[in-house]
Amino acid sequence: LFSGMQVACAANISGVVFEDTNRNRKLDPGERGVPGVIVSNQQETVTTNRRGRYRLPVLDLLVASGQQSVTIAPEAGSERLRRHLGKKLTDERIVEFAADAVGRGLTDVRMYFMIGLPTEEPGDVDAIADRVESVRDAAVRARPEGAGAVTVSVNASVFAPKPGTPLAGAETPSAREVRSRLERLRSRLGPIDGVAFRMPSLD
Q1: pTM for this predicted structure
Q2: Helices (H), 85-153
């Protein structure tokens, strides 16, 4: 048996338990889901349905475990650049997920981005600030009455191509250009209340 999981800015972890007859860890045509399997993640237990599928509520698990923070890693600020990276994550989904998390009582939204990605333009850097501000606004609106203040923590790392990956040979901007883009991002994020930006070291 093998269990495949999927979670991408989702309120639930979904997956399927199936007979992995060729042991390639993928659900291939002809391989059957296994019903009645108990799947547990400490706080929650569910049973697979007749097709072997299950769903665990991620945000509910975080709240039940006493967590106060939730992490979102869009990597890029614009949908255009995320599509270029193969990430099917829309601006709308990012905002909805953050609002859902805060509405359930989480107060710290952590967002992770990368600077210097292939094909990145100044507008993509500005889009990071736009996404952060829209998340902050949605989180404030979703905050339950009497709950603590909401903080959006932004971390930006510098893209570095890794050997053996699809972007291994991608062109990257100079250190000077990367620094300029980071300063641009810091200046855009600075005026937004409730946002903390962590500037990466370029040494």
Answers
A1: 0.72
A2: 91-103, 122-142
